[in-house]
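User: What would this chain look like folded?
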Amino acid sequence: MNPMIYRFLLIATLAQAPVAVLADDDHRQRDEIDAAVRKGEILQLSDILKRVKPQIDGKILEIEFENSKRNPIYEIYVLDRSGRRLEYEVDARTARIISFEADD
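Assistant: Here's the prediction, encoded as C-alpha cells.
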C-alpha cells in the first residue's frame, strides 16, 4: 500500500475515535437518566423545563446533566436579552433552581 494513503487512512481512523467514545458516553448517560426517571429519583427534563421556564429570562442554548450521588443537577445555559450567557443549576429531583450566574 502507498505510504501516503496508509498515513491518510490512519489519521482518518484516529480522528474518528474520540467521536465514538463521546457517542458511547452520551448513550450511557441517557440510559442512566432514563433509569433514574423510571425509579422516581429525578424528574423528567420536560417537567423540569415546564417548572423553571417562567423563572428563566432568555433563550435556552444548552442543557447538561451532572450526576453526583449527593445532588443530580441540570445545568441550563441561557442567552439573555442583553446577549449575556447565563447558567442556571437546577435540582433534577425537585426542579428547584439552586444557583444562577453569568457564565464568563
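The CA atoms of residues 88 and 100 lie 5 Å apart. If you want, I can go into more detail on any region.
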